């Protein structure tokens, strides 16, 4: 399988390209929030596809951490809880929630790259979308396709909070060994 190869031809690790895709996806969603109207619906769809696609590639290409099952469990729980229960609606809640969850994944998994922290926002969006679709079905109404009226930089802040906390925690993990 081509995606299982860990490095591209120029030495950049494939997971790093997927991580950049996740950051770009968060900026596309932010642009959709700013744009509004039909442009927002199109941009939001593009951003969601890029987000989910980057998350899948990230999951397939991240270096295996010391405690692989624990990393997956922490990422699934963190992304799932943030998507289903906590529902970050403010900048401070988003930054704190994603930073704590990202750092926890790296620490529990023994990840030395910090990249595993990005599995939290990668899992968050599909959970968020499934809940939105489920609510629309239960209410018998249309699914909201326009972005929520939140701060435009909220999606970017969620991804960056997880990434920065993960990189800092990876430094701690490396220094312990």
Please explain how this structure is put together.
The protein has 177 residues and is mainly alpha-helical. Helix 1 (14-35) runs antiparallel to helix 2, helix 2 crosses helix 5 (119-139) and helix 3 packs antiparallel against helix 4 (91-109). The model is unreliable at 1-5 (pLDDT under 50). The protein has one domain. The chain has six helices and no strands.
Features:
single chain; 177 residues; mainly alpha; 73% helix; globular
Structural class: mainly alpha
* Share of helix, binned: over 70%
**Separation, N- and C-terminal Cα atoms:** 33 Å
Number of DSSP strand runs: 0
Low-pLDDT stretches are: 1-5
Overall morphology? globular
Rg: 16 Å
Rounded mean pLDDT is 87
Our estimate of the beta-strand percent is under 5%
Number of helices: 6
What's the helix-strand series?
HHHHHH
Main sheet properties:
none
Counting structural domains, the number is 1
């Amino acid at each position: 399988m081509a995606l299982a190869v860990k490095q591209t031809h120029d030495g950049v690790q494939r997971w790093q390209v997927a991580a950049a895709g996740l950051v770009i996806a968060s900026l596309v969603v932010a642009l959709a929030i700013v744009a509004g109207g039909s442009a927002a619906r199109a941009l939001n769809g593009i951003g969601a596809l890029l987000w989910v696609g980057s998350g899948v590639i990230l999951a397939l290409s991240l270096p295996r951490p010391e405690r692989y099952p624990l990393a997956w469990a922490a990422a699934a729980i963190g992304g799932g809880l943030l998507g289903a229960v906590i529902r970050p609606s403010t900048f401070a809640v988003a930054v704190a929630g994603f930073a704590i969850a990202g750092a926890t994944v790296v620490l529990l998994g023994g990840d030395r790259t910090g990249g595993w922290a990005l599995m939290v926002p990668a899992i968050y969006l599909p959970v968020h979308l499934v809940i939105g679709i489920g609510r629309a079905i239960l209410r018998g109404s249309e699914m909201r396709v326009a972005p929520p009226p939140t701060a435009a930089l909220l999606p970017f802040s969620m991804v960056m909070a997880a990434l920065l906390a993960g990189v800092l925690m990876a430094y701690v993990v490396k220094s312990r060994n």
